[in-house]
Write a structure and sequence with these properties.
The protein contains nine helices and seven strands. It has about 200 residues and is an alpha/beta fold. The chain has two domains: about 5-55, Helicase, Ruva Protein, domain 3 (Orthogonal Bundle), CATH 1.10.8; about 65-200, 3-Layer(aba) Sandwich (Dna Topoisomerase Vi A Subunit, Chain: A, domain 2), CATH 3.40.1360.10. The chain is elongated, with a radius of gyration of 21 Å.
């Protein structure tokens, strides 16, 4: 008898669903699924409703592309942010890394990825039109390129620097402190603060 068939079909389906999550292997999915069996019915019901309403409750900010529960995210709505600074990141998951490091008080713009020709991701797949629109007003004086330091991230940074070069806009890049090839999503706060404070001109 196979290991898979030793579980009821309903439990196997739950295990298969959890195993689709990034970083969750079959064994971890099994432990999580079995653990859920010990939850009271009301907690399971609440958990199920959260999953069912996830797309309805969580969307993308129409301005910056961050995760939001309304049209605009709290960062875009905040009157305390420095609106002359715009930090360009690849994904919304990288914004909390900067916020937790307490090293930046400007606004953000989420590209939605990075250039990767081998995977069919060109400039048209990024949120460049929205970025053009945000820079048109001239309110932004410095655009910080915070793409990852791997080959694709560096290529994206060079493309952005050339695409948005204009008078009155300083374009900078995160400095020393981020290891070559690193994904910013996993950078620690101290390292990220060093990279932000030492950012260099990228024009």
């Amino acid at each position: 008898m196979s290991e898979r068939s030793s579980y009821p079909a309903s439990l196997n389906r739950l295990i298969d669903s959890l195993a689709r999550l990034p970083g969750i292997g079959r064994k971890t999915a099994e432990r999580l699924s079995v653990s859920l069996l010990d939850w009271p019915d009301e907690q399971l019901l609440d958990f199920g409703q959260q999953l069912q309403n996830l797309h309805q409750n969580v969307r993308y900010c129409t301005c910056c592309g961050n995760f939001a529960e309304a049209e605009l995210c709290p960062l875009c709505l905040s009157p305390n942010r420095q609106r002359h600074l715009l930090c360009v990141v690849e994904q919304p998951t990288q914004i909390p890394v900067f916020e937790n490091a307490c090293c930046y008080q400007g606004l953000y713009h989420v590209l939605g990825g990075k250039l990767s020709p081998l995977n069919g991701r060109g400039p048209e797949s990024l949120r460049l039109a929205e970025l053009h629109k945000r820079l048109e007003s001239g309110e932004v004086k410095e655009m910080i390129l915070a793409t990852s330091s791997d080959v694709e991230g560096e290529a994206t940074a060079h493309f952005l620097a050339a695409e948005f070069a204009r008078e009155g806009l300083t374009i900078t890049r995160l400095a020393a402190g981020i290891p070559a090839g690193a994904d910013l999503t996993y950078a620690d706060g101290a390292t990220l603060a060093l990279a932000m404070s030492g950012r260099r001109d990228f024009s």
